[in-house]
């Protein structure tokens, strides 16, 4: 056998699928008994002498088993594997003994036997790994490698042989034997095999048996997850590379493995790290890096660049000193197309910076290298791929956590990150916010004064140090006297003493300057961050919340602005995980900032700080912010996170009287208490006397805003639970009119004042009376009478009955013209009482229905029929009272003031006081919501005021009121709806915004039908005011989901924008159309739009309209033949317009869009090609025609000039 077996030749033969050897046994056809007999015989021979493998028959028996290895039963497979490993180990031990004894005459026999065992083991491993990889359950096989208990037992006919058996019912698993096989390979490689294999070629061939097996094992992803297997494989390969000239083979194999096996990217990097750190061999890693640098990746090569990227990143983490030597070559890949490779190099540079920064000795060349790496990273902020820019920001997040802060680089980095907040990619913006937060939390300016970043404090410090520096500079007079000896000596003495102080101060100034600059850099990002708080992407919003929380923690002044903007997120819907996440994070953030106790201070101090912070939230807050804050605080209160001590402290601040406190502080306390009472009414219920004493007492009379918020707090007594639509339950409470609350409220509204704050107070007083009083109409009537008596200088009889003559009021103007503010207050009260009384009537009707429903549950069917009739009668009675009695009844108090208010509004030149006109117009609008008759009588007056008034407040109020009137009296307003649409072009942005909001509400809720006026709303899409533009986008987005409304009105919108009374410019037209055409999604709609637009070309002479229609056609998707055919059918209408360059360009874009549809049928391609040829033909013909016309015109002009000269 020694002469027959040549390892190299056998390995070449084995590559053939039909590997043949002379004495092959067809083991697959043998019975179990015959197989056992063969294996027992083989075991006996090998156990007796491991070199028996050189026997040709025995070797061919084992080759036969290995060849059909995957067809064997699991018991047989394990026996074959055990025989080979046991025999190989025995041969290894015999060879080791002979090597130690220098028995050179045995080396040849050992070489043949070792090669045979190695050949069998390598072949078996190859088959075993193929079988393991083909099984779907391999992934769990490693973890359960030892789950099947194994035992060694002697077979009946072989007393000395040992084999491994497993339960026949179990799947074959050789994980336990893998480690034994790998350990055996290691032991063999550690022999002095150079003595046995004197020929390099033969030795390399033998070693290749182990390296090939090692690579095969790594190709199985399950093996790479087993650290024991992975460690042994790395050792085998490392020994082969270092001792057996396997470096070049390893280089080739690693490059191939990384390129084609994604899971081997990181393990191969780990192997190179083991090779360099444990075996002191870095050359292989360096050669591989050089080869990677020389690789060129194609545009369609996705897997290769990704795998090499992961490999480089892992290697730079484990062995940065190896990578840094070749990084100068690798960065060339920044200029290549695959973005995954650029992402990997960005991370590699970050790892190298981290390694250099963590080294204890900072050499000069290290600083140079770090700066070079930073330069390369900063260039990547302009990378065309968003994944690269995102990865860059993630790398900087790691760098910011280093002890080394790189202060000079941070300034530049902050500028770049602020710019990245406006990146078009959401992922980039997310990490930009995250990095800004990290820059704040890891800033380097906490060495002297702690970590806070208050701009005011740092600017004050900088100012002080500059003054100190200025004071230490020598006076100019002494410098000028330098020629004198005494002066010179004095100057030198002072200089020697002060040099050190000046150096320290200059360093401090530079430190302060950098800190101030950093704070201002962050400040420039605030507007963008506030916009990102309302982003539609959840991750951006969450990161923006974290940013403002961090900024507030570091005492940055601008953080308060962001925290107020955050408040509106409390309205985020909880109908999905995204909304819940944002709302939950918001509540957690406010809880952390305002309610969590600081364990380092006392409870009393904690309560004081929490109270102060809560009150500060109300300072300079808008109505929208206060509304959102109310929802947030009531939610937190419901969760029980606000202690009684904090509530008590808030009451203490509200009621303090022994010392002067700012008005805003007292107001803030009652605002917060009112918000908390929304969740827990008892907060206010237990302190009614205090509210009356403070808010409606002397303090309230001196501060109308305090009184107003006190009224709002009292309204919490009426219950604040959201009413369920259609529900008849009523949990509100009503107080008798003799209650002290109403006495104080009456006193407050009757205060004689000219303050504008009175109107807001009066509104809340009336609201409170109608919410809490059993008979609010009685008290309000008395208030109106007393106010009228004061305004008109009338006396009220003792029986509290006052008759007011209409004629006296309307004609005798002199008494009240002297008090326009008082008259304004009167009409304001009248108007607001009227609108609240409507609500009161609805409450009465609802309460009656509730009581009736309760009675019905106890009654019978007959009673229900009677009650049903009564209910109808009550509804009609209420409607009659509202329509006829309130404003036209003989005994109605409001009826007295209707003509007065109309007269004031109609005679605005006579009653020209600014406040009076605003109050009267508002009151008129409220009265018009009461009765349809009154509304119809005064509607034209209201429209006249709307058209002619120069006061934006009046126009805004009328617009809002018209929205309410449309709801109440749809038929009356619908005929005059154009007056509303006209306000969309109002000069005042507030009026325009309110008009858009009212129309949005009316249209989306079906209150009015769109009749071609959507063009005016479409113009708002390009409004200068971002709020109006955003509202318009929201409107059309919602409208598009309702019965094809955008599609149905598209022709009218196009007409309005391009040729209406006030057409928009072409750029705006294109932007608006691009937005609207995105809503045309159905193919049928696309076909119809194409047909209608083509017809529009007919009889059009305006070239701008040609361009507009052609542009609209280019926006549509051309997905099928029908749409293209519609376009071809309409060609007669536009073929004579194709000579216009821009029109032709748009049609060429249509052709390109149609060609890009994949997959494309041959018929479709033919149609498009024919259409393209026709377009070109008509374009050329049209151009020739135009040139002919121009020549004719020129000739005519020339003839006229010639005849003119002849005549002269």
From TrEMBL:
Primary localization class, coarse: nucleus
Stated name of the protein: Condensin complex subunit 1
A single GO cellular-component term on record: nucleus
Similarity comment text for this entry: Belongs to the CND1 (condensin subunit 1) family.
Condensin complex subunit 1 N-terminal domain span: 75-250
Any GO molecular function: histone binding
A biological-process GO annotation: meiotic chromosome condensation
Record keywords, A-Z: Cell cycle, Cell division, Chromosome, DNA condensation, Mitosis, Nucleus
Location of the region described as Disordered in the Swiss-Prot/TrEMBL record: 137-160, 1176-1208
Pfam families: Cnd1, Cnd1_N
Ranges of biased composition (kind: Basic residues): 1198-1208
InterPro entries: ARM-like (IPR011989), ARM-type_fold (IPR016024), CND1/NCAPD3 (IPR026971), Cnd1_C (IPR032682), Condensin_cplx_su1 (IPR007673), Condensin_cplx_su1_N (IPR024324)
Domain Condensin complex subunit 1 C-terminal: 953-1114
Places the protein is found: Chromosome; Nucleus
Biased composition (Basic and acidic residues): 1176-1190
Job of this protein: Regulatory subunit of the condensin complex, a complex required for conversion of interphase chromatin into mitotic-like condense chromosomes. The condensin complex probably introduces positive supercoils into relaxed DNA in the presence of type I topoisomerases and converts nicked DNA into positive knotted forms in the presence of type II topoisomerases.
Recorded superkingdom: Eukaryota
């Amino acid at each position: 056998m020694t002469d027959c077996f040549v390892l190299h030749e056998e390995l070449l033969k084995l590559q053939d699928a039909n590997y043949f050897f002379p004495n092959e046994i067809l083991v697959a056809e043998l019975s179990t008994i015959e197989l056992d007999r063969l294996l027992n015989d083989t075991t006996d021979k090998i156990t007796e002498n491991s070199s028996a493998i050189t026997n040709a028959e025995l070797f061919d028996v084992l080759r036969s088993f290995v060849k059909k290895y995957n067809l064997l039963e699991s018991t047989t497979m394990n026996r074959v594997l055990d025989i080979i490993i046991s025999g190989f180990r025995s041969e290894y031990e015999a060879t080791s003994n002979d090597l130690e004894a220098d028995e050179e005459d045995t080396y040849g026999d050992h070489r043949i036997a070792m090669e045979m065992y190695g050949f069998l083991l390598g072949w078996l491993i190859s088959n075993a790994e193929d079988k393991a990889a083909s099984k779907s359950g391999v992934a769990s096989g490693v973890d359960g490698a030892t789950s099947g208990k194994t035992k060694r037992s002697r077979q009946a006919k072989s007393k000395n042989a040992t084999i491994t058996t497993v339960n026949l019912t179990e799947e074959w698993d050789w994980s336990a034997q893998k480690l034994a096989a790998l350990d055996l390979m290691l032991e063999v490689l550690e022999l002095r095999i150079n003595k046995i294999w004197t020929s390099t070629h033969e030795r390399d061939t033998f070693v290749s048996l182990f390296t090939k097996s090692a690579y095969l094992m790594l190709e199985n992803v399950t093996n790479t997850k087993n650290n024991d297997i992975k460690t042994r494989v790395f050792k085998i390969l490392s020994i082969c590379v270092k001792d057996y000239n396997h470096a070049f083979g390893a280089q080739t194999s690693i490059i191939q493995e990384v390129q084609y096996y994604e899971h081997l990217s990181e393990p191969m990097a780990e192997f190179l790290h083991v090779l360099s750190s444990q075996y002191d061999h870095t050359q292989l890693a360096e050669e591989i890096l050089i080869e990677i640098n020389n690789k060129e990746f194609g545009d369609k090569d996705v897997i290769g660049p990704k795998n090499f990227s992961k490999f480089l990143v892992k290697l730079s983490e484990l062995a940065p000193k190896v990578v840094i030597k070749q990084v100068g070559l690798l960065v060339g890949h920044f200029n290549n197309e695959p973005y995954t490779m650029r992402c990997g190099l960005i991370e590699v540079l970050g790892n190298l910076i981290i390694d250099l920064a963590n080294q204890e000795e900072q050499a000069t060349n290290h600083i140079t290298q770090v700066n070079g790496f930073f330069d390369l990273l900063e260039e990547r902020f302009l990378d065309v791929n968003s994944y690269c820019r995102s990865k860059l920001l993630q790398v900087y997040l790691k760098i910011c956590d280093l002890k080394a802060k790189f202060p000079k680089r941070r300034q530049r980095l902050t500028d770049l990150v602020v710019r990245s907040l406006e990146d078009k990619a959401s992922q980039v913006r997310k990490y930009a916010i995250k990095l800004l937060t990290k820059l704040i939390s890891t800033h380097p300016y906490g060495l002297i004064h702690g970590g806070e970043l208050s701009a005011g404090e740092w600017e004050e410090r900088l100012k002080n140090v500059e003054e100190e520096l200025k004071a230490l500079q020598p006076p100019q007079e002494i410098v000028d006297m330098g020629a004198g000896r005494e002066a010179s000596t004095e100057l030198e003495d002072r200089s020697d003493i002060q040099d050190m102080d000046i150096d320290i101060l200059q360093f401090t100034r530079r430190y302060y300057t950098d800190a101030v600059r950093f704070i201002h850099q962050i400040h420039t990002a605030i507007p963008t961050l506030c916009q990102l708080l309302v982003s539609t992407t959840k991750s951006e919003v969450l990161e923006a919340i974290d940013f403002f929380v961090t900024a507030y923690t570091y005492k940055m002044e601008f953080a308060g602005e962001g925290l107020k903007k955050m408040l509106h997120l409390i309205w985020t819907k909880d109908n999905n995980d995204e909304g819940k996440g944002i709302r939950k994070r918001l509540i957690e953030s406010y809880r952390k900032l305002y309610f969590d106790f600081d364990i380092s201070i006392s409870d009393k101090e904690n309560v004081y700080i929490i109270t102060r912070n809560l009150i500060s939230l109300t300072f300079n807050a808008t109505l929208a912010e206060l509304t959102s804050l109310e929802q947030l605080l009531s939610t937190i209160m419901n969760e029980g996170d606000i202690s009684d001590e904090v509530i008590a402290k808030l009451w203490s601040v509200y009621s303090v009287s022994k010392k002067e406190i700012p008005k805003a502080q007292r107001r803030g306390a009652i605002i917060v208490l009112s918000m908390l009472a929304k969740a827990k009414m008892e907060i206010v219920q237990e302190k009614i006397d205090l509210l009356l004493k403070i808010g409606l007492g002397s303090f309230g009379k001196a501060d109308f805003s305090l009184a107003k918020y006190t009224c709002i707090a009292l309204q919490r007594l009426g219950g604040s639970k959201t009413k369920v639509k259609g529900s008849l339950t009523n949990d509100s409470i009503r107080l008798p009119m003799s209650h002290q609350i109403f006495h104080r409220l009456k006193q407050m509204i009757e205060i004689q004042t000219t303050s504008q704050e009175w109107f807001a107070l009066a509104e809340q007083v009336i609201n409170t009376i109608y919410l809490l009083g059993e008979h609010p109409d009685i008290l309000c009537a008395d208030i109106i009478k007393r106010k009228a008596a004061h305004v008109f200088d009338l006396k009220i009889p003792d029986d509290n009955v006052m008759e007011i003559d209409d004629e006296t009021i309307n004609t005798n103007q002199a008494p009240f013209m002297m008090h326009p503010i008082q008259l304004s207050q009167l009409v304001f009260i009248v108007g607001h009482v009227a609108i609240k009384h409507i609500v009161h009537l609805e409450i009465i009707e609802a309460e009656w229905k509730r009581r009736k429903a309760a009675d019905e549950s106890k009654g019978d069917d007959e009673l229900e029929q009677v009650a049903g009739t009564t209910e109808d009668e009550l509804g009609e009675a209420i409607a009659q009272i509202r329509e006829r009695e309130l404003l036209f009844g003989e005994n109605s108090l409001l009826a007295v003031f209707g003509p007065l208010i109309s007269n004031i509004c109609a005679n605005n030149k006579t009653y020209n006081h600014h406040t009076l006109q605003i109050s009267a117009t508002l009151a008129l609008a409220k009265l018009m919501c009461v009765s349809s008759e009154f509304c119809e009588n005064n509607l034209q007056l209201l429209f006249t005021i709307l058209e002619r008034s120069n006061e934006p407040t009046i126009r805004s109020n009328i617009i809002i009121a018209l929205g309410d009137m449309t709801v109440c009296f749809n038929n009356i307003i619908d005929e005059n709806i154009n007056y509303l649409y006209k306000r969309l072009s109002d000069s005042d942005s507030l009026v325009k915004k309110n008009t858009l909001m009212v129309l949005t509400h009316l249209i989306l809720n079906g209150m009015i039908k769109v009749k071609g006026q959507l063009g005016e709303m479409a113009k708002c899409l390009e409004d200068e005011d971002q709020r109006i533009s955003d509202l318009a986008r929201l409107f059309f987005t919602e409208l598009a989901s309702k019965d094809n409304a955008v599609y149905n009105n598209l022709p009218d919108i196009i007409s309005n924008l391009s040729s209406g009374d006030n057409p928009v410019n072409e750029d705006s037209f294109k932007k608006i159309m691009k937005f609207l055409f995105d809503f045309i999604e159905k193919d049928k709609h696309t076909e119809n739009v194409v047909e209608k637009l083509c017809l529009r070309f007919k009889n059009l002479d305006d070239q701008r309209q040609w361009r507009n229609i052609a542009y609209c056609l280019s926006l549509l998707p051309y997905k099928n033949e029908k749409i293209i055919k519609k376009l071809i059918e309409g060609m007669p209408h536009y073929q004579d317009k194709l000579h216009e360059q821009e029109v032709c360009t748009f049609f060429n874009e249509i052709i390109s869009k149609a060609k890009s549809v994949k997959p494309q049928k041959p018929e479709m391609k033919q149609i498009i090609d024919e259409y393209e040829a026709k377009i070109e033909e008509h374009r050329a013909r049209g151009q020739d025609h135009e040139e002919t016309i121009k020549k004719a015109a020129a000739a005519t002009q020339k003839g006229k000039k010639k005849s003119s000269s002849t005549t002269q």
